[in-house]
Amino acid sequence: MRAYFMVAALVGSVSAAFLLAANLGTGNALSAQDFVDLQQGSTAHAGFRRAHAKGFCVAGDFISSGALAPFSSAAVLQAGRYPFIGRFSIAGNNPLAPDLKAPVRSFAITLLPETAQQWRIAMNTPPVLAVGTPEKFYLQLQAIQNNSVPQFFAEHPESQAFVKWRSTYQASSSFASERYHSINAFYLQKAAGQQQAVKWAAVPMLTSTISSELDETDADALQKEFFARLNAGMVSFDWQFTLGTDADDENNATVLWPDSNVQISAGTLQIHQATEQLDGNCNALNFDPLVLPRGVAPTADPILRARAAAYAESHRRRAREVLVQSVVGDQHE
Ligand code: HEM
């Protein structure tokens, strides 16, 4: 099986577009469009993300400890306070899905230092992926839609770590008490020729108890819990980095790095504002994992390139739909 990527465009560090072409062994080329067609399903929800469609916006500050400054020249890893825009979401293409029922919860952030060196991050609750290539990820998405996931896992032994995690994971009653993982590895870079492979996680620092009872019949139960919790006080996460060693393969997101690896806290992500997604400034953002500041670089993990391509395609579709809706709306006023 052969996969290749052509960089179609890379404009500054703000927008990256990749054309993904992979041979699935069927003679058909797999593109970002194919990914997004599959993810959106037969009836697309116009104007919404084709994956992680349901969510809400948050804003806050990252209080950087500076502990990672010896590894990276990234502005936000130098000690200080840096604003961020974020988004909590659930996996899936339905913006009206009941949030308590989703198997995967997510936290995305865009760090905004004064230098315009944005850092966009999208994290999920599992620490690993079931499969390590875009082609197999596509087949996994098909298996989910065909209700043949057990058979898919049986045919893909590399899914072992994911299956083990899933068997012990218990969803919590709050977005604020989940642990969110980068899953893919990246490099921290300080000087030319010097780099350190890392993965990271946002680890909850609960400072208040649940502020409202969860109504399990409410499709927005988790969102309401979060808004109520925030009204009662700030929500914070410790941003923890795990350093890879020579024994770890940074290009294979199916493997869990050992607990014995060095962990360093980069600081605290403090959330002080939450907004409905249609009113919030996270909605128009694409949390492309390849929008990285100087001092952080992608590994060769092929999933990262596929993600950037698919996020761009999903963003292109929903941005166009929002524009068309607003033009049609104006004509009727
Ligand atoms: C080949 C694998 C993947 C594909 C094709 C894919 C595809 C997508 C797409 C199309 C979107 C919507 C983008 C938008 O319209 O802005 C999205 C959102 C998202 N993805 Fe993935 N994804 C992949 C892997 C991952 C992984 C490994 C993670 C976690 C580390 C992840 C986390 C997220 C999150 C958190 C969002 C929502 C971001 C937001 O709030 O806007 N995805 N994904």
TrEMBL record:
Residues 1-21 form the signal peptide. InterPro entries: Catalase, Catalase_core, Catalase_sf, Catalase_SrpA-type_pred. Residues 8-332 form the Catalase core domain. Its EC number is 1.11.1.-. CDD domains: srpA_like (cd08153). GO terms for molecular function: peroxidase activity. Its cofactor is heme. It is an enzyme of class 1 (oxidoreductase). The keyword Metal-binding applies. Transmembrane segments: none annotated. PROSITE patterns: CATALASE_3. Keywords: Heme, Iron, Metal-binding, Oxidoreductase, Peroxidase, Signal. Has an organic peroxide-dependent peroxidase activity. PANTHER family: CATALASE. Belongs to the catalase family. This is Catalase-related peroxidase.
